[in-house]
Each structure stands twice: as structure tokens, then as C-alpha cells.
Amino acid sequence: MPKKARERWQRSPTPLESWSDAEGANSDGEWEIEIIGEEVDEEGNVRYEAEWGTWSRKDGTNTTWDNDLLQPQHHEEWDRIQAQRRLDLAKESLDVKVWATLDIHNTNTRLRAQAYDEKLKAAKRTHQDDSDDLPARMAELMASQAHLFNEPSISEPSTKKLKTSTPRTQNLRAKSFSSVGKRSSSITSGKHSIGETSTASTLSVGTSGSSRQTASTLLTPFSVSPPPKRIVASSSSKGKGKRVAASPRLRPLSPSPVPMPVPSETRTIKPLPSRSGRKVSRRPTKTTREILEDCWNKMSNSAAPISFFNDVDDEQVPPLCENFRYLESVYNDPNGFQVVDDGFLVRCDCDVCIEATYCHCQSNSGLVDERGHRAFAYTVDGLFAFNVSPGDEVVECNKCCRCDMGCQNRVSQQPRDFSVQVFKTPDRGWGVRSMEDIPRGKVLGLYTGLLRTRRAADDLGHDRRSYCFDLDGQEVQDGADSENDSMSGRDEEYTVDSLRCGNWTRFINHSCDPNLQIYLVLHDTIPDRGLHYIAFVATEPIMAMTEFTFDYDPKAAVAPIEGKGKGKVVIPPGCRQCFCGSSQCRQYLKV
Ligand SMILES: C[S@@+](CC[C@H](N)C(=O)[O-])C[C@H]1O[C@@H](n2cnc3c(N)ncnc32)[C@H](O)[C@@H]1O
């Protein structure tokens, strides 16, 4: 990545604010606010930038993005004016500007600013007869332009010298937002004493130090909220209808991958009647399956092809969230949990990493060979050496090391060189297999998705956890019991959620007699912080077209199954019947 681009993604540190000596309140202890900007986060939530009329920081800045301070009536006028402006835009033209960006927050925000949704609706109304085709045509357009988005430069390690930004600490937890169209509008609410019982228009912020402290822990990196004892949303008409530039202080943070459309079922394009009355096809016919294959293959960073196959029923592709984003080998890390300053990475100076003993980045590794000498986790043929204790992290060479991508100690970073097929099974949804023979020890890929804290993942609820993989190493650690984890540590533990983004590994089904196992691997971040990747490796030679499986609950493999052999096995709560079909089947799996 060019230096300039790297710098663009650097995170600005959160300024610390003194809460005790805030000035600017009127004689009634009130502050005036005005909504001046908005942004849309990756979940589609709108957030507002508020400008404080009589309060500012020492550096003169006076806006915050702390929406906990706002109530609906504070932004309803803004919403109304913005909605009207978008409708006006849609009436003027249905064009939407396409640009290459890696940042989903900016993308969402800019699309909203261009009235994308309103234009889409208007386009559908205008092309009533062709409305069914519109999503398909947009999907095709996106697929044909996927190269614009240049995903490898997100953080796919196609070149090893990617730099990242400043170190993160817990109190610098960041959310990446950007503002569009600073625009003044006015809002009015009553005067409210903080600390009084909340009413519909009272801002529920306390005056006590502890309340302020609570508020401060919720700050976004661009905002430090003043301590409003009372807040009055002013009814000024300042700048009404005027668009002004976005705040220059705002910078996008971790780049998020670009959403690719998931077309709805059956995407054969209907021919339209030509002027002569003859039916002509306006564009090449593509099926849903082909469109999705195109999207994923363009986004998979020069890895071998992915295809979909179903001879079980009519479903052309697996059910996926709208705008599911394909990520071959990196996390979507909008909070920058993985990001560390290069200075914290231990680097090696090897031209070629042959001896782990001399490879400096391995100096803290506990991996040893049978003679007790430090060893790599991979053989010279690039296969997993199975010399890693369960739960230990394999530390691969990182972006600061001198060696190149072909290094023996970068196996999980190298592009996938075998083609995979995601296929429909008769009884376990979609599964995945290789189109080629796979040797024992082959590293197949990394589980990718949205990086969340465990606490945030726990809040999702049980039914949303089917595609969550906890990064606590418990899956491979003997004797550990994740159920007994102390809840206090959950903000420092992480989970990968592949519901909305991820790769082919999210389709690997469970088997009680699997042909894959997982191990923990990392590069470009600090070890022992639970921010590794989960890598899948073949534990036996796997013939082409054989389904890949791993054991979702390896601890259960050694625990006796209650009731087994005495008739019907009772499926415990939180589990479902297992259809792996192996002779070792434990009858149920945790979901
Ligand atoms: C991570 S997903 C695997 C991909 C999934 N089959 C799909 O179609 O998206 C896990 C889910 O697959 C299903 N599954 C995986 N292995 C299974 C098995 N051995 N028996 C029954 N269901 C299984 C369960 O519904 C489970 O919650």
C-alpha cells in the first residue's frame, strides 16, 4: 500500500477531556446544541454530529458524535429536512456516483447523501415492467466493478509491507464514522436539569463524576462530550438549507471491506421487446449462482476459484444476508482491535527463514523439534508440522520481517491454491469440499468475519451464534471450560462473526469424525491477546470432492455421552441432532 494511503487510515487518538470545568452554560446551566452532520455505520444506523453553541474544547473544536446525549426530538427536524433534500435529489436525477473505497462507513454515508435508496425506489417505479430485474442488474454492475474496490489493499497480505496505524489501547476503542454534508438545522427542546427524572425530552446525563465517567467510556474517537448539566437544543435557523464541508477532523479508521450484493433467487434476465417487436436480450444472461461466484472470486485476492453446486433442491446459492461481504483472509475489524504500531512487532532479518533458531520473530516461540531446538510450525513443503500444543498460537513472520511472501513461516498468509466448492448437503444445509486432492497437513484457510468482543457476541443471542467462532482457544484446549469463563474478561476476548461477512470456511460442517482440525495463528499483531486467526488444516489426505468437516466441540469427543448405547440419546438444550453419519457420531452437536 502506498505510504499516503497508509497514513490516511491512521487513527487519531481520543483526546482526554476534563469533565469538571466545562464552561459555556447559560445562567440556567444550559447548553445549546445543533445537529450539523450525520453518518451511517456498517449496520445502517444513522448517527448525528452535534455542535455545541457555547461550549468548546481548548483547541476550539465543539462538535460531538455522542448520540447517547440526544433524544429523537433533537434530530427530527434535521431528519425531516434531510429526507426532503434526498427526495429532491431523486427528482433531479437518478444517477449515483460510484467510486472506489474500502470504507463501509464512508460508503453507506455517501450513498445516503446521494439519496441512493430514494433513487432506487424511483427507478423501480419508473421501470415498472422491468422492476424485477433491477437488483440483478445492480448486482451485475457491482460484480463487474469489483476490481475497482481493490480488496487486497484492505489488509490482504498480497505484499508483505503493509503498515498499520497507531497502537490501540482499550480506552482508545474506536468506531469509524465519517460525516457528510454539515448542514445546520434547528431543534428545540425544553430545558432540563440533568439528574432530574428523565422526561421525554430530558437528556439522561448525570452531573455527578460517576455519571460523566460512564458517558466518557462511550465516546467515539472523534468526540469528547461536554458535561451537560442541562441541554437546550436551540431553535436557531443558522445555515438552514446550506451544505457545508464535512468536519476536517474526521478520518476513516480501519478500512472495512466493500459490500457485495447478494442477489435474490433466480436471476435469469428477461428479454425485453425491441422496437421492431422482436425479443432481444439487453445483456448476457447470468444466473444467481454465476453472479455470486463472480463476486466472490473477484474478492478472493487471487486465490483459486470458488463455485456453488446443488443437486439436492432448487436453491442456487446458500442463503446469505443481504450485502454479505466476502473476505478471503482478513477480519473485518472496524474497531481496530488487531491494530498495533509496527514498533510492537518483533521482526526477523532473515532473507530466507530456514532456521527458527535464528529467526528473530520466533524468539518467544515455544515450538521445538524432537531435539529440543526451536522449530517452525510448518515443514519445508509448506505443510503443518502438527508440533503445536493445543491452544498455543503459531506466530508467523509479519509485515515488518525482511522475508517475502513465499517464506516457509507465512503459510497461512499465502493465497489458497486449490479450488473449493460450496455444495448443498441433503441434511446439513450447505457444506464445502475441494475439487482437488488435499495432502495431510495442508493449511486450507482462515475463518474470517466481523471481529467482535465476546461480550458483544454474547449479546447477539443464541440464534445468532451459529456463525460465531470464539477466539479463546477453548476449542482446542484440554480441560478448559468456556462456560466457566469469568464474565469480567469478556471485553478482552474476541469472537469472529461470519453472519454478514466471511469466506467459504463458514460452510464447514461438523463431524464427530472430522478430516480437519483447527490451530491458532497470527501475524501483524501482538501474540497472547486472543486476536489470532483460526486456521483449518487437513489431518489426513482428503480426496477431491470429499466434504471438509471439523469437530465443533472436540472436548465432547473425550467425554462419555450420557445415554449412548442405552436407546435414544436425549439432545441437550442448545444442541441439535447431528447428521454427520460417522460411526463415532455423538448424536448431537452444540450450536
Ligand atoms: C457454521 S454453519 C455450517 C454451514 C451450514 N451448513 C450452512 O448451510 O450455512 C453451522 C450449522 O450447520 C448445521 N450443521 C453443521 N454440521 C452439522 C451436522 N453434523 N449435523 C447437523 N447439522 C449440522 C447446523 O445447522 C449448524 O448450526
Overall description:
- The chain has helices spanning 3-8, 72-92, 104-113, 116-126, 134-144, 146-149, 152-155, 209-216, 288-298, 454-459, 554-558; strands at 30-40, 46-52, 63-64, 230-233, 272-273, 279-280, 306-309, 325-326, 393-395, 420-424, 430-434, 443-446, 450-453, 468-470, 494-497, 501-502, 509-510, 516-522, 533-538, 549-550, 575-577, 588-590.
- By secondary structure, the chain is of the alpha/beta class.
- The strands form 8 sheets. It has a 4-stranded mixed sheet with strand order 3-2-1-4.
- Mean pLDDT is 72; it is low at 1-9, 145-275 and 475-488.
- The structure holds S-adenosylmethionine.
- Residues 318, 428-431, 466-467, 506-507, 509-511, 576, 578-580, 589, 591 line the site of S-adenosylmethionine.
- S-adenosylmethionine (SAM) binds at residues 318, 428-431, 466-467, 506-507, 509-511, 576, 578-580, 589, 591.
